[in-house]
Design brief:
Distance between the termini: 53 Å
Structural class: alpha+beta
Helix content: 10-25%
Number of strands: 11
Number of helices: 7
Strand order of the largest sheet: 1-7-6-3-4
Oligomer: single chain
Largest sheet: 5 strands, mixed
Mean pLDDT: 81
Amino acid sequence: MNTYLAASDVKLSFPAVDAQGQPVLPSAASYRVLDEDGTVLAGPVAMDTSANPLIVLIPAAMNQTPAPPASNLVPQFGTLRAYRRVELTLGTLAGDVLQTQEYILERDSNSALVPGTNSFQTINKAELVALDIPNLNGWNAADRSARVAAMIQARLNLGQMSYRYRWSENWQNFIFPEFGIYSIIQFTQDQYLSLPIDFRQSMERAQVMEADDLLGTDPVLAKRQQGITSETIGSSTTMFGQVRPVRQLICPRAMHELSRYIVKRVRLSRA
């Protein structure tokens, strides 16, 4: 599926052929444009059938991505991308012929991640944070679009944890209070930026670590997760552990980075 820059014109070319790829002479043609929810944004719009291929131009006004919230006091969920489906109907003597093309709209790569919407930091900041973290093999091997997707998923993974922040580790200090965070992904941009800087720095480092783990290129770990216990290549045999590793909510490196803040619960039950 092709990807285009949001808020720009998109030109699609449709050849005058039937479902088997045979040329046809349409007597009429029309198209309509739908979004990811199936809502019709335009059409049916009649077209001139004298041209081959038929060109459909979807204007920039119809290629907008979801708008940010009107207020930073309201959290925004979902995506900054949009989907479009163009359906072209050709009227022929043998009946109608339907052709479709689909494409994705997204913002430029510099604004693909928005704090308070789909990330804890921008992609530019994430790449800066990554410079101070060693052994990010998956991150370093990925392109920017893959990093963006991993960062979005990493935020959702980190959002499954509960957090607690203490201004002082001295349990006898009653002056400085503490606060808990049950669902950090519900924070707006303003609310997130109001959190203490040390907590945000750990969260942003952990997001990059989690993204790196999602992009992981460790072939041994991949084989163990698939349940492979041994591998023989020629005269060389490699044995793996019998127990398949379990993927926790977040990776061990991210867990260690946030260990000071993560709320750990232990449930006791009677046998």
